Amino acid sequence: MIKVILPAHLRTLANVMRDVEVDVPEPVTQRTVLDALETSYPMLRGTIRDHVTQQRRPMVRFFACERDLSHEEPDAPLPDEVAAGKEPYWIVGAMSGG
Fold this sequence. Notes:
CATH topology: Ubiquitin-like (UB roll)
Strand content: 15-25%
CATH class: Alpha Beta
Radius of gyration: 13 Å
Order of helices and strands: EHEHEEHE
Low-confidence stretches: none
Mean pLDDT: 94
Helix content: 10-25%
Structural class: alpha+beta
């Protein structure tokens, strides 16, 4: 099981109070984690990545093991610690402004 930490607004939309866990088939990649998340919580479809292109939304970032994975290839394997369920996969709403 992969632990996914969602920002507050996505937790509200998914109707969950805390982090979620999703069952992800091998290989564990950003794409497989997001596919499993959207299967378990269909109301999140289109909020994290575009419906058509499947590209990350501009104001969403991905982190794991203290690394920004936002610009990694979607099919690149996630760190072993995430795949083993020892470390969470973070989805973070980016901030902008001045």
